[in-house]
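Complex record, two chains
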Amino acid sequence: MTTADTQEPRLYAAREPVFPRRVKGRFRTLKWWIMGVTLGIYYVTPWIRWDRGPNLPDQAVLVDLANRRFFFFMIEIWPHEFYFVAGLLIMAGLGLFLFTSALGRVWCGYACPQTVWTDLFILVERWIEGDRNARVRLWHQKWDARKTRLRLVKWTVWLLIALATGGAWVFYFTDAPTLLRNLLTGSAHPIAYTTVAVLTATTFFFGGFFREQICIYACPWPRIQAAMMDEDTLTIGYRVWRGEPRGKLGTPGAGDCIDCKACVNVCPMGIDIRNGQQLACITCALCIDACDDVMAKIGRPRGLIDYLALSDEARERAGKPPRSAWRHILRPRTLLYTALYAAVGIALVVALFLRQEIDMTVAPVRNPTFVLLSDGSVRNTYDVRLRNMNLEDRTFRLSLTSDALLRIELEGTEELTVEVPANQMVLQRVYVIAPAGTPAAEAHRTGLRLWVEDLTSTDRAYRDTTFNGRGE
Amino acid sequence: MTAENRTPQEQIETTGHVWDDDLREYNNPLPRWWLWTFYLTIIWGIGYTIAYPAWPLITQATPGLLGYSTRAEVAAEIARVQAANAPIEQRLVETELTSVAADPELHQFALNAGAAVFRTNCAQCHGAGAGGVQASGYPNLLDDDWLWGGDIEAIAFTVRHGIRNATDPDARFSEMPAFAQVLSADEIAQVTEHVLALSGQEHDAALAAQGAPLFLDNCASCHGEAGEGMRDLGAPRLNDAIWLYGGSREAIAAQIAAPRNGVMPNWGDRLSEAQIRAVATYVHGLGGGETLQ
């Protein structure tokens, strides 16, 4: 190993501040719309009311951790139905696969909260401190009264946005109007204040100061996205063959790129897209807008920087037009992701419509597997959980069906009925008895089906389980 | 930055390290704040060891300025739970055992608390599932056969005073004599056949007939003429399918010749009144519980 005898290389580098310039264009407009819709959904949703009748919360979307319920408009999810949430998470994952394989890091560029809030913070920054050049000057100048005033105003507005962001989060977990009143009067739970404080601080810091560093150094998503992209993925690129060699307008033999650095100046990540796809690029498409603007001014066709697919490079270098975007998007991989996404979605909808207002789970007690009674009969025990998802008390009747001669009894009652209060779960110990000498008593295992019937609605549900006899 | 620190092709800065003639390492400097964060964690770590128990000394660790202790935290948590349970435990002590089931909240508390008491104190002999251990003669508490009574008061009494122990004068007590000193080997075999007949098992009818008068003379005073047992004496039923020490010919003969007499400690000394009532409620609700006559 040899070491250069010159100056030691730097192992640490200070952050290069980024001052994105204002830009107008089709993608910028799209991003404003997406920002408005996503932030609107986030801030407004907890305040939507939904009448569910007495004794139940009237908040449309509510994660009720204390009572272990998740309310989403007309849907009420119980803990045993968590597969709905799991299904939604699987759909979210497949959706990311689909969008990444079709359009690259489109999530990062348009919908990621880090991007959306940073975009909002940069907008505030521009309103208060001016556009790129003014901000660069302000950054380099000494601290005077004006700089202090501008900085304080900016930080205050950021802090208010951050407070609203952290505040909105806790409203999803309890009744929003009540919590807001409690928060303002100082009587809310300490956890609510802590959560608001932490989320306010992270929003303020990540959106105001950390920005692109989250994407470059903290986020795992850019690292795994490469696995989902291929040569047909549409991602943002620079048409090298058209732009190079770059040079001032009018330079003989120069390409379309006039090296105006518009694409660099608008970039919120502070990179030069002309160096090619790179880890720091979140594909926000603002460089496309900036370059299209310049191309229009110098009378060249748009799209020097554009959504491109790697597989088109050879065609374009040969002077042919690129294939249409749909040719790239519709390919077996994306169709497969779409099919999987749709299958999970349809399965969830079907499950939602098929689910019943009553439910039970049966847990056979296997210690011991069976009990021998004094008359020689054999008894098995089952812990049966009965759920009444109705809004009124219901009487459930338990019964069993089996090919074998079996009898059912309930602990603590001579009856075969159980009162289950509204919106609650009751644990009932259930006995199944095979009379002495019958096949089920002597066999190793016998199948049986336990039924529960709601005597009011006559809804029925069943669970199949096993009866253990004395046989080996 | 010198030309030597750049790769010839791409003009990207390298660390200057070169292996195997041409293998170089790109220099991608870490952000400066990363370094500061690292220093900050060191400072935090030093502060932490001052504030919390940390450095091991000879007898104990440094206590830390905040006086934090996991043991104290656990003790406080236990005290908090006990204080929270005190009212309902008081209610359990004041309620008739037979009325506990009528109060859903109290009943649920007794079942849960009783299950915990059972697993801590009773499961060692009776098994975690209360199924007993046949080979060791620990009774099954799930079935409908009880030696000393299966109503909730009888269960609570047994738990409180125990069986055949020397520590509680009120312990349930009885002793089956060793009939090997009273009956001959042939007679024991005859009585064994009679007991097998009483419980409806396969037996030698001739020997059983010879054993019947012997059973009446020696066994019926406790176990009853038909082998129906006697709970006041803890004498088991012999005419059913359940056997404390086994129902085979060999096991019955062994028990007649040299009986085993099981012992249970008196838990009144160790458990609180509320715990005894809770565990009695729990055991009563396992499937064999009888209604108080």
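Note: Residues 1-5 of chain A have pLDDT under 50 and may be disordered.
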